[in-house]
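Collaborator request, handled under Task 6.
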Amino acid sequence: MTTVWQGLAMGACILGLTACGPLNEGDQGAGAVRQALNYLPLPGQEPATEAAPFVVTRAMVDQLPGDVMVVEAYEGTSRALMVPAAINLNRVTWISEDEASITTENGIVIATRGFPRDLMAASVIESRRALAAGGGNAVRTHETLSDLDQISTEVLQCSINSAGPETIRIVELDVFTRRYEEQCQNENLSFTNTYWLDGSGQIVRSRQAISPELGFLVLDRP
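Structure tokens returned to the collaborator:
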């Protein structure tokens, strides 16, 4: 039976906010970052429905040292900031205060840690090449943990197509982009990732499937 990753699993752990490095040393942005903890559920809790999700402002982003990534989960009801913990060429590991992490390769998620049913590893080089070429076919591999804590490997056939130009708003700034959709499937899974690329070809926003239990994460690069 095909499982379609249409939404986000409720009641699972969610990102905290990073306070590593300079944020622990009296930086002006630290207070704004830690304030977000008031809006995020603890591991095992569902996102709060009575309070609005944490709002990220341009002034807040400008106060933070270095790069930042805004992560949304649970269909936008939870939001957090993450910063780089490690950079290795085109791979960046982004980390949160509770040590949940997302590793991206040229903007495409290749691993997570600290989430429900993590994406242990992914091979996405063909997907990135198809994006750079303006579309095409790709094979990607996902490795996740099974219920028995064993690695389950899924090989997916994907088709990447341009959905045309689109102006999006990222943290109070309008960004002209071209949107691409990546439709992936095999006999067990089916999902569609969406990427927004700026004029230089960088992924500035994406909505990417992680696992059936977690669903999708939205990643913004202000």
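The cover message to the collaborator said: "Residues 1-45 have pLDDT under 50 and may be disordered. Residues 54 and 84 are 20 Å apart (CA to CA). Please let us know whether this matches your experimental observations."
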